[in-house]
Amino acid sequence: MISARMRRPVKVLLVSGATLAVAVLSAGCGTEKISVPKSSSLYAGAVLFSQRCGGCHTLYAAATHGSASNIRTRLVTNGPNFNVRCERPGTRVLYAIENGGFSGATMPQNIVVGKDAQEVALFVSTYAGRKAQLEEGQTPCEDLPIGPIPLASTSTTPTATTAAPTTTLAPTSTTLAAKPKKPAATAKKPAAKARKPAAKAKKPAAKAAPKVAAANGPKISSATIPGLGPVLVNAQGRALYIFEPDNDAKVTCVGGCAAIWPPASLPSGEKAAASGAVKQSLLGSDPNPSGGQVITYAGWPLYAYVADSAAGMASGEALNLNGGLWYVISTSGKVIKAKS
C-alpha cells in the first residue's frame, strides 16, 4: 500500500515513464516530419511512402525508419535502407512496387497503384542514395538519370489477339468442307482446270507476304553516336543493345531485367524492317520466355535502355548491370565493346 506522502512522486514517475515510452515508440515508427516541402510535386509521393512503406524501409525525406540497424535484430519484413541504396532509374522502383520487390518473398504486390505508384516511384528515385558513402570514382546517385516512369501496362491485348484467329479459322474450314458436295463426275474437270490458276496464284501470294510484313513490322535503322560510330537504333532513334549473357543464342533478360532493358518486341505475324545501312538479311527474331518474340540482329536479341532519355544517347554502353555487360551493335553485326 502506497502512503499518501508517496503517491504524488510515484504518480509523477509513472507519467514521465509513459511519456518516454510513447516518445521512443513514435521515433521508431517514423513519425518525424517529412522533409519534402508541401509545395513540392514530390510531397504526395513522400506521404504515400511514409504511410505504406515506412514500416519496412528507411528514408530520411519521408521520416521513416523501417530498415534494421543491426543485422542480428533484423526482421523478415525489414527492407532496404534507401538512405544509402541508390534506386535509379525510376522504372526500377515502379517494377518493385508492381511485383512485390525483386524476389516477391515478403513485399505485397501493388501496395500502391496507378498515379500513386508513379508518385512513390518518382519520390524514391529522387531521394534514395543521397546519404551513401561513395567510393573513389563512383557516380553519386543524384547524378544518375531517373528516366521516364510509365503507367502500368495491361495484358488484355494479347488475349484478344490470340482469340481472334480461332474465331476466323472455324468458318473457313466449314466453307472448304462444303465445296466437295457437288457431283463427283461433274466436279472432276473443273477441279483439274482449277489447278493451273491455283499454281499461278502461288507466286503473287509469296511476293505479297514479305511486303506486308516489312511495311507493318518495327523499323530498325542506324544513327552515328560520338565515340561509337554508326549503331542500331529503334524507330524512336534510341540506341539498341545486346546482352552478353544471351551469348548470341537466346533471350535471357526477363522480369526485373526487362523492366530496365525493354526488349525490341516483334508483334505476331510481322517482320522487322531494315532502314538505311541496316541489313535486312541480319534481322530475325527469337522467342521471349515472357511471351512473344524479340527482334534479333546477327543472332543477338536487341534491347533499349530506359536511362537513354533522348535519341543520340548510349549511356548503357559497356555497363555491367542486371547480371552482365551491355553493348551497342554496328550495322555490320559487330558488337562494339570499346569507344573509338
Short description:
This protein is α+β, with helices and mostly antiparallel strands. Among the domains are: 25-143, Orthogonal Bundle (Cytochrome Bc1 Complex, Chain D, domain 2), CATH 1.10.760.10; 219-336, no CATH class. Helix content is 36%, strand content 14%.
Overall description:
It is a single chain. This protein is α+β, with helices and mostly antiparallel strands and 340 residues long. Among the domains are: 25-143, Cytochrome c-like domain (Cytochrome Bc1 Complex, Chain D, domain 2, Orthogonal Bundle), CATH 1.10.760.10; 219-336, no CATH class. 36% of the residues lie in helices and 14% in strands. Strands 5, 11, 12 and 13 form a four-stranded antiparallel β-sheet that branches. Strands 6, 8, 9 and 10 form a four-stranded antiparallel β-sheet that branches. Strands 4-3-7 form a three-stranded mixed β-sheet. The chain is elongated and about 60 Å long. The termini are far apart. The model is unreliable at 9-31, 153-180 and 208-215 (pLDDT under 50).
